[in-house]
Amino acid sequence: MLPFSVTILGSSSALPTLKRFPTSQVVNLNEKLYLIDCGEGTQIQLRKFGLKAGKINHIFISHLHGDHIFGLPGLISTMALGGKKGELHIYSHSELKLMMDPLLKFISEMDDFRIIYHPLSFRGHAVLFEDSKLTVESFPLKHRVPCCGFVFREKQHELHLRGDQVEYLKIPIRERVAIKGGADYHREDGTVIPNSELTFPSDPVRSYAFCTDTVPRKQIIPVINNVDLLYHEATFGDDLKDLALKTYHSTTKQAAEIALEAGVKKLIIGHFSSRYKSEKPLVDEARTIFPNTFAANDGEKFEL
Amino acid sequence: MLPFSVTILGSSSALPTLKRFPTSQVVNLNEKLYLIDCGEGTQIQLRKFGLKAGKINHIFISHLHGDHIFGLPGLISTMALGGKKGELHIYSHSELKLMMDPLLKFISEMDDFRIIYHPLSFRGHAVLFEDSKLTVESFPLKHRVPCCGFVFREKQHELHLRGDQVEYLKIPIRERVAIKGGADYHREDGTVIPNSELTFPSDPVRSYAFCTDTVPRKQIIPVINNVDLLYHEATFGDDLKDLALKTYHSTTKQAAEIALEAGVKKLIIGHFSSRYKSEKPLVDEARTIFPNTFAANDGEKFEL
User: Fold this and answer.
1) Which terminus, N or C, of chain A has the lesser number of Cβ atoms within 10 Å?
2) Which domain range does residue A171 map to?
3) Same structural domain, B138 and B171
4) Residue-wise pLDDT tens digits, A86-101
5) Which residues fall within 8 angstroms of residue B215, CB to CB, at 6 or more apart?
6) A–B: how many Cβ contacts below 8 A?
7) Is B226 in the same domain as B209?
8) Is the ipTM of this complex over 0.85?
9) Cα(A38)–Cα(A73) distance, integer angstroms
């Protein structure tokens, strides 16, 4: 299976702490890096955790609050200074461009690369990005400002060719691609060998969903259903659920309930309020509902 | 003497490193904090080094390159979340407001405090700020974009009253303020005791000058003449003086020559290019010209 991981760069809510930078994560699929949110200090965290800023070509921004975007100008400057070429795609609320343009006009090294802004839809589920290995989808969350979650899904993998049959039937190389895609094998003598006799099943496809900032929202369940890994914000413990509602955030138990109902395999909670000195009670509380819960900590890497 | 210090929050040039954040410093005079420049992560450094963001009411921005300003939106958000009240004064190129406004409009907690932007003059020496203890002046540097240096000067202190004379002459409390300001003492019997017999000299006034980013510029010498502490950028070692000139920066030796000609007491060099893994060779090189040179390192506090 291809390497597929999520590295937490920042896991605080609005106020960073000595242990937690504001929200940012890197999804790595087969050494292609996708950034989700970009709180202040993201470029510093990338460096600290050995991830190259210049390898990021796609950035997904959930919403335009400062703790999710204030790292963008510095990251983009550093990319420019590092000689980045080509295109940087940013998926966000359309207003982001208006916020960034005045900041970026002083960066004289940006002649060689271009930022392409893609507006998010906050009305419904949409496919944002697609290549041969991955699709990235967005779906609306519910926060004080327009906000989207994202799902990263591996594309269906090729079937595995059965080495014994390839050898026995002397299948030419040119036919193998089609068979790995599901085709039967037509021999020169006219006989047909069905695909099921030529292949083993493909690897399972994996998926990662990112949901912050938001109140718990049942409407997202069909979209994130059965994902392997779900990041869901849990800004507060369950005793502060009134405050969570008022500020359009979720509690530990609410995040766990979403994970449970969506039948996900594993839950990461994060975006912790700076009032919590330890994440342990928060994780313990979520585990009363969804046992396979873990805390996001800066620098931690979750393999899918 | 009142506490008067400079704490280095960031000392890198454009690219931060694992050891150095981008430029930012805090001047502390008698527990009033003044921020100079605000590179990305300034709010994180303030927290790390135990300085309260909410105590800063004046920010001086040398120029509008990202490594000197990209920490502002996060710092201001954090001030707002911390319940800051009153006025925050920012002294900078007038364009800064246009860069900040689109970023700050999402900060809903800013109802209680107001940012007042003060435009810098890039033509000549000017007094920016003055209170009972301090003046802050600006003066033009020479960089790729308009840039100013700053001098923080203590105001002339009061004279020290001689306790023996106060007692012997029974000087009433109401007269003492005038005497500390230099007045003679007129006794009720008409005799006059000259001030020189009533006081000891005041404490010396101290001063700090901040010069980055710039080519070495002789025109600044009259302004920074005899300061107690000079911070002067030394982005490069002396072997890269062509590159320094091309990018409008200074070398170690050029910074040291400015310090020597200005007759300052102590020199701090910083804004080091990320190519230097250690600051030691840079300091050694500067010391061949100005022996009392030290490197700026994040978290270091220089007492005046």
Assistant:
1) N
2) 160-200
3) no
4) 999 999 999 999 999 9
5) B142, B143, B244, B245, B248, B249, B250, B254
6) 91
7) yes
8) yes
9) 9
